[in-house]
């Protein structure tokens, strides 16, 4: 992948890729500096000495110190979901970032690498898609982007997207709109104009930003009735015919152990019950391999 990325680097080629991330929130659960150093050196070997490398961690100074290594610009991510404005403390976040910069010896601005204008939605949420209020977003922008000339925000997300197929993972919905400035359909979102205005002020430029593009033509599809269904047992039999793999073990294997990274695995276990006691109970143990979602059938769904 690195040979594909390299020609598009801002330095030294003037491309659109300004920074390359070494790790993401690694300091939350690890502190292996040899691992981080190997990642850093591998990226530099493949991308060149001029590439700007960075790592992101939460605004916890201990996490930042776990992750920080020399030569990798250390940034933080933070948000204050439901926190009263009086309790929001950006100073603590920047102090945590500086704890990392003291180790990395890479000067740079205050940088929130993941500013969340919203959040993902889950199927169980009765209130629908969780968005931050406009007042919250406005206050963050005013406090960080405009008031602090040495601060930067990276919007997560800047462009709302869609989780196709099973990529979203349980229990996240198909939509990944995130209340982004540009929404899931490519239209200006509810905070688009506010972000556009703030960026113009933050640039301190007399040149106004270009006008937003014209709206994309859209139509309503109305209600769609689904009339055909496929039962799980028959679908599995049809899709796996001739592709079955025998796994010898007492428990189902994690997807990674059978060299798969996407989709669904159908397991059909076989038990040998005692001839003298055909009604003996059998126990199916999933141990710690069920990372996402499991359906169990014994003639019917259990």
TrEMBL record:
Keyword Membrane: no
Gene Ontology process terms (BP): carbohydrate metabolic process
SUPFAM superfamilies: (Trans)glycosidases
Domain Glycoside hydrolase 35 catalytic: 3-198
Single Gene Ontology MF annotation: hydrolase activity, hydrolyzing O-glycosyl compounds
Pfam families the UniProt entry points to: Glyco_hydro_35
Keywords associated with the record: Glycosidase, Hydrolase
Family classification: Belongs to the glycosyl hydrolase 35 family.
Entry protein name: Glycoside hydrolase 35 catalytic domain-containing protein
């Amino acid at each position: 992948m690195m040979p594909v990325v390299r020609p598009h680097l801002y330095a030294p080629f003037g491309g659109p890729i300004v920074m390359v991330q070494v790790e993401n929130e690694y300091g939350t659960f690890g502190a292996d500096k040899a691992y981080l150093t190997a990642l850093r050196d591998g990226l530099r070997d493949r991308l060149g000495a001029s590439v700007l490398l960075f790592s992101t961690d939460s605004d916890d100074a201990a996490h930042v110190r776990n992750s920080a290594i020399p030569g990798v610009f250390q940034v933080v991510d933070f948000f204050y979901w439901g926190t009263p404005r009086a309790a929001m403390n950006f100073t603590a976040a920047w102090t945590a970032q500086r704890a990392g910069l003291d180790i990395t010896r890479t000067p740079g601005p205050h940088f929130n690498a993941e500013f969340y204008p919203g959040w993902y939605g889950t199927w169980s949420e009765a209130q629908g898609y969780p968005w931050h209020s406009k007042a919250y977003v406005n206050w963050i922008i005013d406090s960080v982007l405009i008031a602090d000339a040495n601060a930067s925000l990276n919007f997560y997300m800047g462009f709302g997207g869609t989780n196709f197929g099973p990529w979203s993972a349980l229990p996240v919905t198909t939509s990944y709109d995130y209340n982004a400035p540009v929404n899931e359909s490519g239209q200006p979102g509810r905070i688009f104009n506010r972000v556009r205005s703030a960026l113009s002020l933050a640039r301190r430029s007399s040149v106004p930003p270009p006008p937003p593009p014209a709206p994309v033509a859209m139509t309503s599809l109305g209600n769609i009735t689904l009339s055909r269904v496929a039962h799980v047992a028959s679908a599995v039999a049809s899709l796996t015919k001739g592709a079955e793999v025998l796994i010898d073990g007492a428990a189902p294997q994690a997807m990674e152990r059978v060299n798969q990274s996407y989709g669904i695995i159908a397991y059909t276990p076989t038990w040998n019950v005692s001839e003298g006691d055909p009604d003996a109970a059998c126990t199916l143990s999933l141990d710690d391999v069920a990372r996402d979602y499991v359906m169990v059938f014994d003639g019917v769904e259990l």
